[in-house]
Amino acid sequence: MPSKLHERGLEMRKQVLGAAHVEQALADTDKYTQPLQELVNEYCWGAVWARPGLEPRIRCMLTVAMLTALNRQQELKTHIRAALTNGV
Asked: What is the pTM of this model?
């Protein structure tokens, strides 16, 4: 049974990335990638993105800046789309 943090993370992930994107990512999971999806939802999106202090638009800008500096092109594409959706 998913924790409240996991549920909050899933909600935030859908808000930022779009429900269709998240549902597709979850549909593509298998027994090997399921634990990673759970970790991402609970900790990345639930513990970090959903905590108070910064609005999603600011978090999007910071994420795009960090992914650019780290040259993470594949992740950058997703987060640029998310940033545009969130008013950046």
From this structure: 0.83
Q: Using one digit for the tens of pLDDT, what is the confidence trace for 42-83?
A: 999 999 999 999 988 999 999 999 999 999 998 999 899 999
What is d(CA 49, CA 13) in angstroms, rounded to the nearest whole number? 8
Q: Are 61 and 84 in contact (CB under 8 A)?
A: no
Distance in angstroms (rounded) separating the CA atoms of residues 81 and 85:
6
For the residues of 39-69, what is the DSSP string, one character each?
HIIIIIIIIIITSTTS-HHHHHHHHHHHHHH
For residues 39 and 52, what is the distance between their CA atoms, to the nearest angstrom? 20
What's phi and psi for 18, nearest 5 deg?
100, 135
* Residue 72 DSSP SS3: coil
